[in-house]
Amino acid sequence: VEASIPEPQRKAWLEHQTSGFKDKDGFETEVVRHVETTLARSMYNCDEQAAYSACSLAFRDRLILEWNRTQQRQTFADSKRVYYLSLEFLMGRALDNAMLNIGQKDVAKAGLAELGFRIEDVIEQEHDAALGNGGLGRLAACFLDSLASLNYPAWGYGLRYRYGIFKQEIIDGYQVEVPDYWLDFNPWEFPRHDVTVDIQFYGHVTKRTDDNGKTIATWDGGEIVKAVAYDVPIPGYATPSTNNLRLWSSKAASGEFDFQKFNSGDYENSVADQQRAETISAVLYPNDNLDRGKELRLKQQYFWVAASLYDIVRRFKKSKRAWKEFPEQVAIQLNDTHPTLAVVELQRILVDLEGLDWDEAWGIVTNTFGYTNHTVLPEALEKWSVPLFQHLLPRHLQLIYDINLFFLQTVERKFPKDRDMLGRVSIIEEAQPKMVRMAHLAIVGSHKVNGVAELHSDLIKTTIFKDFVEVFGPDKFTNVTNGITPRRWLHQANPRLSELISSKTGSQNFLKDLTELAKIEHYKDDPDFRKEWAEIKYANKVRLAKYIKKTTGVDVNPSALFDVQVKRIHEYKRQQMNIFGVIHRYLTLKSLSPEERKKFQPKVSIFGGKAAPGYWMAKQIIHLINAVGAVVNNDKEIGDLLKVIFLEDYNVSKAEMIIPASDLSEHISTAGTEASGTSNMKFVLNGGLIIGTCDGANIEITREIGEQNIFLFGNLAEDVEDIRHNHTYGSHTVDPDLVKVFEAIEKGTFGEPNDFMGMISAVRDHGDFYLVSDDFHSYIETQELVDKAYRDQEGWITKSIESVARMGFFSSDRCINEYAEGIWNIEPLPIKDQ
Ligand code: 73E
């Protein structure tokens, strides 16, 4: 490992080794010490769980040293910091990542072996940190990895949910949700009981005029909840930089519980305050791409934002600089609209608490914030009712009205006669009740707004934020195409492929500069290289096949084409189209003679993903996939020609196993609906090909890897509106192949047809909003092209190698550098003067 560390990180790396383990004996000593003292167990009684705990504690000790030094270095340098505010951080497991980023997994492997453990089994003991729903939360986690690896002075701020995203069980084909209590033993977090912030809710506002005629607002009364900081170290790859993720946990401000109530015999109520306060950070809302407007969610948002800003401002104030320098020291990125209250809270701090003039304060605020939009789906755009706001955050509502007033005045000056324009861009929607539009507030309060892939960034400029382009000019809006960390999604998830690549590129430098992947294209005709390439994919498929057998009892043939769709279940992502396609394939197979069937490409269709608990249609889709599997997998005539698998409880650590094992993955959203997608990048980086629509980052992936290496199909985003219009006002006929699929379902081929009528009538009777029927024929035809291409194994391997070689652009390192230069105006901190 050491020899392959790139210059100029090498020097720092060597220095870094002094805080790593000297050798496996040094590591073992630490593990044994933790088992015997920290865990108070004997080595004779050390199971895999204890080995995991001790191993984590040993690595954690190493991390802490660098973490402290990194924080000292950042404080000493006094340079600008970036704060990434995200309500979700989908981190997955920490131990494997820490071992690899520190560069001492080999040492741990040898040490654990001597103690009688396989490192893979030890790693498996860790519970995923699942504080997120899907792509948005995982993006935040990839960004933290890149920020640390590139030595940027950066902090993440989030909520420490007691329950992360629920665990999914499949019982009789239905999704059942089980709470994810993950904090029993978490060696990766550090409670900071000394770092607390009092957060106020409810109450009332009084205004008075001071001697200079200035209006002073004070917010009194209501209730106070305490925020307690928990810190998580974020190790960079091949650098000593270790950044901080700070998660806030809620506690009653009054202390333990109400002794008065307790002493007066009111035992039951004595803990009620405590519990009510703790509810705020108790649970992650399990909705992806959906806003439900619940009061507790708004409470979560303010609690987290107010604590984070207090912390950021407290740090700035220590520097004794003038307020106008705030944006030169602090950049805050809003991960979607969830933290938008931060805009209002900073204005409140500056005007109400620090006494700045409105305009000066507002200049500071807008120069500090950047806003990333992740979705155009109307049901996901956050709105809060004005009465709710008035009740929970009365002063913030006043400030929002003032922000809106001044903003609308500038709009009116620019477009004097356009009253409609004022209504359209207003932060307040004139509805019953009135609503606060958080995206409008985020745009008005930020200096840059970005989308997450080119098509998406164009779409927001021409559709949902069109008027704001007129108001602010086009330069405020920009694109930063998403990326993924190659450390976790290649090196950690697919160690053999990573090793093969480094044997050809000459070092592991490609993990720091992913464009170096281009070098492997020289070997695409090298027979040994190709053979090993194919063997690695096969071995990954064998591993997944074993897992499928273990968890579902179904035998799948690793030589079959593995066709994978794993992501949150959502109508716009169109898992329903995939399963209709599978049914079509099954019906076709059944209609063939045994001889004809032999010519067919054997396939395993693999699905995985959670449905939001209240999303009825998504749950129906899961049920149909399982019902089809139950029939197809037991059909003796079909055998290995088709298997349908639903993998329970898809999460980050399962993704690390599934993604390297795919031949083909599906990214088939209705054009214009998937802002970017990031698993598409992960699959291609692991040598899988894609079937997909012209949507999100699929478009840029195509541009990079070449049209010959991707299977694109379906209608284009620019035509979707007209097609929908036609569904409603023109003639709407269902694709004939799809009609046959519906007939099979309605005949009861897959059990009680009524269970699936929602999915059928959405297409047939309710306007087919997601264009399933319109794209079905093109989807089926393209699947046939896939079969044909896969039968030419040599051609397939060439496509696979070429694609990986051309994926350099999709590193989250590139992405973070673009944010740093174009939005945050921040530089990496050199590590040489440590
Ligand atoms: O296309 C993905 C994108 O790759 C998008 O759907 C997802 O963000 C990913 C990262 O940019 C996303 N999630 C949400 N909005 N967009 C969301 C909205 C509300 C709650 C939770 C998640």
TrEMBL record:
Q: Which residues carry this modification: N6-(pyridoxal phosphate)lysine?
A: 682
| PROSITE patterns noted in UniProt | PHOSPHORYLASE
Q: Does the keyword Oxidoreductase apply?
A: no
* Catalytic activity of the protein: [(1->4)-alpha-D-glucosyl](n) + phosphate = [(1->4)-alpha-D-glucosyl](n-1) + alpha-D-glucose 1-phosphate
* Source domain of life: Eukaryota
Q: Which UniProt keywords apply?
A: Allosteric enzyme, Carbohydrate metabolism, Glycosyltransferase, Pyridoxal phosphate, Transferase
Any one of the GO BP annotations: glycogen catabolic process
Question: Could you say which protein family the record assigns here?
Answer: Belongs to the glycogen phosphorylase family.
Q: What does this protein do?
A: Allosteric enzyme that catalyzes the rate-limiting step in glycogen catabolism, the phosphorolytic cleavage of glycogen to produce glucose-1-phosphate, and plays a central role in maintaining cellular and organismal glucose homeostasis.
Official protein name in the record: Alpha-1,4 glucan phosphorylase
